[in-house]
Design a protein that fits this description.
- With 304 residues, the chain is α/β, with parallel strands linked by helices.
- It folds into 2 domains: 6-141, 3-Layer(aba) Sandwich (Rossmann fold); 151-303, Rossmann fold (3-Layer(aba) Sandwich), CATH 3.40.50.
- Helix content is 48%, strand content 19%.
- It is built from 11 helices and 10 strands.
- It has helices at residues 18-31, 51-74, 92-103, 118-123, 126-133, 160-172, 188-196, 201-226, 242-250, 267-283, 296-303, and strands spanning 6-11, 34-41, 83-89, 107-111, 137-141, 151-155, 177-184, 233-239, 257-260, 287-290.
- Strands 3-2-1-4-5-10-9-6-7-8 form a 10-stranded mixed β-sheet, with helices on both faces.
- α3 runs parallel beside α5 (126-133) and α9 (242-250) packs parallel to α10 (267-283).
- The longest helix is centred in the C-terminal third of the chain and has 26 residues, at 201-226.
- The chain is elongated, with a radius of gyration of 21 Å.
- The two termini are 23 Å apart.
Length: 304
């Protein structure tokens, strides 16, 4: 898996965006990566009919935003890290994705909004929209930064894409204790289908036990494949519904970061990933990493 060479952190208001900025600086320093700070300003000038005044107002807003960002950066410990600042106008989610694609960044860092407005509940937050539209991994910061990541949980489903995402997540969180977790779960709809097909409760229980055993075997195989890249790796297979279980894990003070990746392609799998991501963004008490290896999209197209 490739190195983290370029990180983009999206900021807006301060001090609210400070945790995202501090975490991005920490990760850029850890990986010796480039760091670009992006601040997108609403086009307030569009409300003015005079074209000259539109331009002037937008320019003033951008200048004020740049000054706020520069001040926030001066208050951080940069060490020898150099930072590129980009201030622009437009839709925050669209421009962040466009700039990330143009620069070829490996990771987008942004803050998670704790309170959601009515508009965000209807069309999704900036983080929601960025995650839906970018091919890049996204780290959503939900806690103040008190230390580097020490305990990281990576959820896996044993697909090739999920394995690549797990390796990438472990790379991003170099130096952390990493635990792979898989949730062995028989969906209620599948169980109902088995009952309608004539399966007995005993047969369903047997199927559930076999599913758990199969999951443990696959976790063991995954751990062996990743051992060369990440020797100190802990693995666990848990019986339970994945979304609720992951949210519950985030409420432990022993977990600093939850990472999820792209599940196997297909409508059901994508819907599952969407529901997990949405709920984690909404309810998680720790930072959330949506890990997307850059070659995942290419593999999908090749296999189509």
């Amino acid at each position: 898996m490739g190195k983290i060479k370029h990180i983009l952190v999206a900021v807006d208001q301060f001090p609210q965006s400070r945790p995202a900025l501090v975490r991005a600086i920490e990760l850029a320093t850890l990986h010796n990566a480039k760091l670009t700070v992006v601040c997108i300003v609403d086009e307030v000038g569009m409300l003015i009919t005079d074209v000259a005044n539109q331009y002037l107002i937008d320019e003033q807003a951008m200048q004020l935003a740049r000054e706020r960002v520069e001040k926030a950066i001066r208050n951080c410990d940069l060490g020898s890290l150099s930072v590129d600042i980009r201030v622009d106008t437009g839709s925050a989610s669209s421009r962040v994705v466009e700039i990330a694609n143009h620069l070829g960044v490996d990771l987008i860092v942004l803050r998670g909004h704790q309170r959601r407005s009515i508009k965000e509940k209807l069309i999704g937050s900036t983080a929601d929209r960025i995650i839906r539209t970018t091919p890049v991994s996204v780290l959503v910061i939900k806690r103040p930064v008190e230390r580097g990541y020490r305990n990281v949980v990576i959820a896996v489903d044993f697909s090739e894409e999920s394995e690549s995402a797990a390796i990438l997540s472990a790379t991003i969180c170099a130096g952390s204790e990493v635990r792979l977790v898989h949730f062995s779960h028989l969906p209620a709809q599948f169980e109902q289908s088995m009952l309608r097909a004539g399966s007995s409760s005993r047969e369903i229980d047997r199927f559930r036990r076999n599913l758990l055993k199969h999951s443990r075997d696959r976790m063991r195989q995954l751990a062996e494949r990743m051992a060369g890249r990440r020797p100190a790796l802990r693995c666990r297979v848990v019986e339970g519904e994945p979304t609720s279980s992951l949210v519950k894990l985030t409420r432990s003070s022993a977990v600093d970061l939850i990472a999820v990746g792209p599940y196997e392609y297909g409508a059901i799998r994508l819907a599952l990933l969407g529901s997990i991501t949405q709920r984690l963004l909404r309810e998680a008490d720790c930072d959330v990493l949506i890990s997307r290896p850059r070659d995942a999209g290419a593999k999908k197209k090749k296999g189509a």
